[in-house]
Write a structure and sequence with these properties.
By secondary structure, the protein is α/β, with parallel strands linked by helices. The protein has 11 helices and 8 strands.
């Protein structure tokens, strides 16, 4: 799959299937592989595009932390759509990705046919709790002083967003650890540092007019934030996904796919 230089940063992306484009972006610490449970289901009818935000996966990790954040990643998304010749798409983001697509939708509403925000505190504009902030600050310190193995071990024990996957099975726990160990420590630390310093004015969501879906796992620590986001977007739908936490697409892929595809199918019917 290709890498393209966008806004002076090399960005990795994948494109599966054909049809109307559906573009998804994951949360902090993820990689495009986390959408493996969606590729087959979504690409049967749509052109399903996934990508690594700067600092993640196979994308570049700039040294300057101010080159990260939702605004920069939203500009990368715009440039990626331009590169692919896509004027308009259904876009979705999970967790950190929710903040990216919310920013994109506010800045480029004419390019969004439908918006999907999943398990995201970032899109709510509510900021982080003191406990979450302290945990994030610790991961920056660990990444810069001890590396990603220390970050992985700390997060698996301390991050409530990872609880369902960490406790699902020894295999799931090992896979989760491997994903964090595989991250670029500069990219990860800078991504977290930006999350700790950036703000998003979620009141801007009130001006959106495209169809929107907000989805959250029933045990997601960000559930209250997702309900707040839902309340801000006019006419937005809300799905509470059973048997799922913060990574709802991994925790309950069948339910997640059904809910998203049902929403997308109704957008097809409206043209």
């Amino acid at each position: 799959m290709p890498t393209v230089t966008l806004n002076n940063v090399n960005i990795y992306y994948e494109s599966h299937g054909s049809g109307f484009p559906v573009v998804f972006v994951y949360g902090l610490g993820g990689n495009t592989g986390m959408w493996a449970g969606q590729v087959e289901a979504f690409s049967k009818k749509y052109r399903f595009i996934t990508w690594d935000p700067r600092g993640h996966g196979r994308s570049e990790s700039p040294a300057d932390w101010q080159q990260y954040g939702h605004r920069n990643s939203a500009e990368d998304l715009r440039a990626l759509l331009d590169h692919l010749g896509i004027d308009k798409a259904c876009i979705g983001g999970l967790s950190m990705g929710g903040g990216i697509v919310a920013t994109f939708a506010v800045n480029y509403p004419e390019r969004v046919k439908a918006l999907i925000i999943m398990d995201s505190n970032a899109a709510s504009g509510l900021g982080q709790s003191p406990a979450m902030r302290a945990m994030r600050e610790k991961t920056v310190e660990l990444a810069e002083t001890r590396g990603m193995e220390a970050v992985a071990d700390f997060l698996i024990e301390s991050n409530p967003n990872l609880k369902v996957q960490a406790e699902a099975s020894p295999e799931a726990r090992a896979k989760l650890r491997g994903e964090y160990v595989g991250l670029n420590r500069v990219g990860y630390a800078n991504s977290v540092r930006t999350i700790l310093n950036q703000t998003f004015d979620a009141t801007q969501l009130a001006k959106l007019r495209m169809p929107a879906l907000v989805l959250a796992g029933e045990t997601d620590p960000a559930l209250a934030a997702t309900r707040h986001t839902h309340s801000l977007i006019p006419g937005a739908e809300f799905v509470l996904l059973p048997d799922a936490g913060h990574t709802s697409n991994l925790d309950n892929p069948a339910g997640f796919n059904a809910a998203i595809l049902e929403f997308l199918g109704r957008q097809d019917a409206t043209g």
